[in-house]
Design a protein that fits this description.
alpha/beta, 8-stranded parallel β-sheet, binds manganese (II) ion
Length: 290
C-alpha cells in the first residue's frame, strides 16, 4: 500500500504526470481561528477514503497520471511564502501539467495564479464566502483578506468571478464600484440555481483556460465546519461539484484552501479531497474527448 502521506492514487513520477499535487502548509495570515497549515496532510489522509473508480465518469483514478510533490518548505512571512510558492508552481505550468494545490490559508492562492506563464489570458473562478478584496489588511497586502484583489492585479478585474460570496465590508463594495470585479452571491445561487449562476460566471470568464481557487468556507458550515472563518448561508457541496465540472474542460489549475482540520470531524477534509478528485476526473474526461 502507498504511503498515506501522499494524495491517493498519486503514483506517477514527475515526467509522466498530468496532475501535480502540492501542499502549502501556511496559515500565518488567518484572521480568526488558525489551523489551515494542517490542511494539506489532512486532505491527503482523507483522500484514501475513496474508491479509485468513479461511477459517474467511468474513470479509474489509478489510471490517471498524478504526482504528489509533497509540501512546500517552511515559510517566514506571507511575502516569503508568495515568492516560494510562485517558484514551486511555475515549473508545473511550464511542463504543461495541471497543479492541484492544497492549502493553507487563502493567501496561498495568488502566487499560484501569478506563476501562470500568460496571466493576462487566464480566467479565475474564485469560490469563497468572503470577497477577499481589501487592498491591505492589518498592514499586510498579502493577507488572506486581500487574495481576490491580488489576483485582479495580475489577471484584470474582467477575468475574475467571485462565486458564493456573502460576507464583505462596505469598503470592499465601494472599491469594487470603480474596479468592477464580477461576483455572484450565495443568495443568488440559492435563488436562481447553480446552472444559471455558472452560465453567468462563464459569460465573464471567456478565456481559453480557467484557474479555480476554492476557499472551502464557500460551502455552508453545515457541510464544511473545519475552516477558520465559517460563514452561514453557503453553497452546497453539489453546487461546487457542478461548478468544477463546468470549468473542467478548460482547467488550468485548482487550489483548495482554508481547510482547518482541528475544527472538523473529518468531513471537511473528505469533501476537499473529493472535490480535488472531481476536478481531476472531469478534466481527464474532457481531455479524452478532445
Ligand atoms: Mn473565505
Amino acid at each position: 500500500m502507498e504511503r498515506p502521506t501522499t494524495f491517493a492514487d498519486a503514483r506517477a513520477d514527475w515526467d509522466e504526470s498530468q496532475f501535480v499535487v502540492v501542499g502549502v502548509p501556511f496559515d500565518r495570515t488567518t484572521s480568526f481561528r488558525p489551523g489551515a497549515r494542517f490542511g494539506p496532510d489532512s486532505i491527503r489522509l482523507h483522500s484514501w477514503n475513496f474508491e479509485s473508480y468513479d461511477l459517474e465518469t467511468g474513470i479509474d483514478l489509478s489510471d490517471v497520471p498524478i504526482h504528489d510533490l509533497g509540501n512546500a518548505p517552511e515559510f517566514g512571512n506571507a511575502a516569503d511564502m508568495v515568492a516560494t510558492v510562485r517558484e514551486e508552481i511555475r515549473p508545473i505550468y511550464a511542463a504543461g501539467k495541471t497543479p492541484i494545490v492544497l492549502g493553507g490559508d487563502h493567501a496561498c492562492s495568488p502566487p499560484c495564479v501569478e506563476a501562470y506563464p500568460t496571466p493576462g489570458e487566464l480566467g479565475v473562478l474564485y469560490i469563497d464566502a468572503h470577497m477577499d478584496f481589501r487592498a491591505s489588511y492589518l498592514g499586510d497586502s498579502r493577507s488572506h483578506a486581500c487574495s481576490s484583489r491580488r489576483i485582479v492585479d495580475k489577471v484584470g478585474a474582467h477575468h475574475v468571478v467571485v462565486l458564493g460570496v456573502r460576507s464583505v465590508s462596505k469598503e470592499e463594495v465601494d472599491d469594487n464600484r470603480t474596479i468592477g470585479m464580477p461576483f455572484i452571491t450565495a443568495h443568488e445561487v440559492a435563488a436562481e440555481g447553480i446552472e444559471s449562476a455558472m452560465r453567468r460566471a462563464l459569460t465573464h470568464l471567456n478565456t481559453e483556460r480557467i484557474y479555480v481557487s476554492l476557499d472551502i468556507d464557500a460551502i455552508d458550515p453545515a457541510y464544511a465546519a473545519g475552516t477558520g472563518t465559517p460563514e452561514p448561508f453557503g453553497l452546497t457541496p453539489r453546487d461546487v461539484k457542478y461548478a468544477i465540472g463546468q470549468v473542467a474542460p478548460r482547467l488550468a489549475g485548482l487550489d483548495i484552501m482554508e481547510v482547518s482540520p482541528h475544527y472538523d470531524n473529518g468531513n471537511t477534509s473528505a469533501l476537499a479531497a473529493r472535490l480535488a478528485r472531481e476536478a481531476i476526473l472531469r478534466s481527464t474526461m474532457a481531455r479524452s474527448r478532445r
